[in-house]
Amino acid sequence: MLNTLLQNTQTETAVLTDGESVEKTLSIIELISSGGAAGQVIIAVLFLLLVGAIYIYFERIFAIKAASKVDANFMNQIKDHVSNGKIDSAQVLCAQVNTPVSRLIGKGISRIGKPLADINTAIENAGRLEIYGLEKNVSILATISGAAPMIGFLGTVIGMILAIFELANAGGSIQMDVLASGLYTAMTTTVAGLIVGIVAYMAYNHLVVKTDKVVYQMEANSLEFLDHLNEPT
Asked: How far apart are CA 27 and CA 33, in angstroms?
């Protein structure tokens, strides 16, 4: 009797051990490859959008960082040159610094001698061009943040259509392995689309905040320059 119980226990242990040994794990690559051709194409498109979004983000963040670097003593030097009538020296200084702020001030210095309204208009026009340069390709991030989830949902619809098609051709017998490909397509593309959309959305908003800081810096220095020109001599 005892031997029989021991044998049964060993058999159950072996079954449990075998059950644990055949427990299946699914990697990301296997998950994508299980989604069929349609899912793989959509994942590839989303991956390219993610790479593009990351490239635009870092390219812009470095450009904005470089544009925001302005020497704290820059405006004091400009004021001294303008006050002493050294217009050429002020223009040379602006050309050497070569930032959005210095280019705006340089545009204003080139108009010295004309009415203050004309100088202000010249600086505003130059400011629009500088802002356009700072915002280069940033709108693409906004497009990606909105398009990526929609592309993912497209994959969801395609996956559900494939699952229903396979189910209709299964002759009335419901088998999960028959539905697996369509369901993998539906789920993986949805997750991938949301991930790409979230990354692009966060990158876009961060760039907008950084750009606004540079714009405020340009406005502050331009007003300071115009106020200096408007001071009575």
From this structure: 10
Q: DSSP letter for 231, please.
A: S
Tokens of 123: 């600086």
pLDDT at res. 18:
44
Please answer whether residues 101 and 218 qualify as being in contact, where contact means their C-beta atoms are separated by less than 8 angstroms.
yes
- pLDDT given at position 15: 42
pTM of the predicted structure, to 2 decimals: 0.74
Cα–Cα dist 70/109, whole Å: 18
Q: Which residue has the tokens 């080139």?
A: 110
Domain ranges of the chain: 32-230
CB burial readout 85-114, b (16+ within 10 A) else e: eeeeebbebbeebebbbbbbbbbbbbbeee
